Amino acid sequence: MSADRRLRRTPALLLAVLAALLAGCDGSGQEGNEFVFLTVDGFSTGGSGSVGVVTSSLEARNTSTLVCVTLRNNLKNPTVTAPTGLDNVLILSYTVKLTRFDGGPAPGPFTFAASFTVPAGTVSNGTISGNTANAAIVLVPAQAKNEPPLSTAGLPVAANAEVVFKGRDGRGEPVQTEGAITVSFVASGTDTLVSCGGVSAPSPSP
Questions:
Q1: Phi, psi (rounded to 5 degrees) for 136
Q2: Would you list the domain boundaries of the chain?
Q3: CB burial string 32-45: b at 16+ within 10 A, e below
Q4: Longest C-alpha distance within the chain, in Å?
Q5: Which residues contact 90 (CB under 8 A, 6 or more apart)?
Q6: pLDDT tens per residue across span 28-46
Q7: pTM of the model
Q8: How far is residue 144's CA from residue 150's CA, in Å, rounded to a whole number?
């Protein structure tokens, strides 16, 4: 390639690189429009420790199976931006998808309306605090215990419950995260007792 042709191509290449860099960053130097992302810290029964399994009893047919979830609000680039009210995330819904480990049919999926905030928190000495929210969520609604396939299932059976949370930050940008826990369906006894210090579980959406 001649020197003249190389010189003619150089400005175009520089413009293309600059455009790509600008397209991939917002004002804070982060990819995408949202400044935060959510993570699931864990599931619990309301105590200090996390749990990996909850019991859902078909004998307790009028009781929905619940669990507590802790969500964390994380800044994408905490070295560049400090949290503001616009970084708070309002959870609007969550969906529970059950998959039996034995490959059998499972109820759902279930989508639930929600309305609780995962705060952005505050920064002190470089450490973010106050950026979590604890809420009670429904894994198995009571109605599902009274209908096939659960009402005809050979028990006990275990299923993976994948929970996807969806919401928006203060700028209106969509934010979502997901976590999973095992549900053990049994024929008798009671559901795992749950006492969350946060938001009460909602009813399923139509």
A1: -85, 135
A2: 1-32, 33-186
A3: eebbbbbebebbbb
A4: 84
A5: 115, 116, 117, 167, 168, 169
A6: 233 456 799 999 999 999 8
A7: 0.80
A8: 7
